[in-house]
Amino acid sequence: MSELPTITHVSDTIAVGELAPPTSSRSVTDTVNGSHHFVISGYSLAKGMGVGKHIASDTFTVGGHQWAIYFYPDGKNPEDNSAYVSVFIALASEGTDVRALFELTLIDQSGKEKHKVHSHFDRSLESGPYTLKYRGSMWGYKRFFRRALLETSEYLKDDCLKINCTVGVVRSTIECSSLHTIQVPDSDMGTHFGMLLENMEASDVIFNVSGEMFHAHKLVLAARSPVFHSEFLCGHEGDAQEIVVNDMEPKVFKAMLHFIYKDALVEEELEATRTSTTPCISDTLTAKLLSAADRYDLTRLRRLCESHLCKDISINSVAQILALADRYHAAELKSVCLSFAAENLSAVMQSDGFEYLKENCPALQSELLKTVAGCEDDSSSGGGKSKSVWAQLSDGGDTNGRRIRQKT
Predict the structure, then answer these.
(1) Pathway membership of this protein (predicted)?
(2) In 3D, which of 405, 334, 331, 333 has the Cα closest to residue 364?
(3) Is pLDDT of 247 > 80?
(4) What domains appear along the chain, each with residue ranges and CATH number?
């Protein structure tokens, strides 16, 4: 008898994989808000400039776009015959279909808080936010306030108006679900290097600054300063254990080391000298640090000092700061000083510092002449006033031909 064939039964099994975790997303539409305070001084002098002509605020940035406030003292609409002042908010940068909410507030200067407010915030809009199609598009009011009423109101004080503007740029973002997030801490490199300086661990050079000792590390200094790099890695100071610095104050050298190791300034010390009764800008810690930055070619320290000194520019101080900027190669600060001095030339020429500039910095006087000439070229006025000021700077006389005697 023959054997029966063996029959094998095979069953198919379908493997079912694990389900992926569900994900989600959410669309969020909100506004990025920002405000600008616009002060209009000399309102009575602005009247009569003409219908459709405006005074513009400085531009300000909200939601990635630039904006400006336009104030029309004689109104924007010819049909109103200058009976109203007009106020508008304009898109001052390139943009297409920028959607935004606006608020314009004319400040009551009596202290009674009875401000005149036009606002889209906190109320529903029938057609949604306003859309500005292109650069130069504006939103506002042709009949913002009747001019006769404005001029007898408490909104106008000392011939001055104050306007607050708030812009809320509409944005839409997608928030996606995330199962896990890991927070990355802020950089603490400056803290670690600062501890290296404070503990003096592994220091290999000592600076004797007017008798006060400072321990430091040649490699750190060389990495931060091209001058130290040249001295320690390429020059004769490579094997030196002690370096004498006679022409710098210990507090200035200490502040410079603090910056080299921590990449920051000691703001409290700078503010203390800035608000003190120090009669001369060059005696402040900031000015002395600017000198140190120039000496050791510390570019970022120079720029930080320029930024601090820029805050102190005034009619009485601009000549001193200009001389400092020129001496220590602070190009940005020098440019700001020249522009400020050219724009306020008559007042600057009567300041105490200007005589020093004339006697000790003749090259700067020449540069100031060129800056004034540039301002004249940009001016659309008749030039009579600027020409007389030019003569004033050129020969030291005032606009009536008299010689100026500087204050002592």
Answers:
(1) Protein modification; protein ubiquitination
(2) 334
(3) yes
(4) 30-173 (2.60.210.10), 313-408 (1.25.40.420)
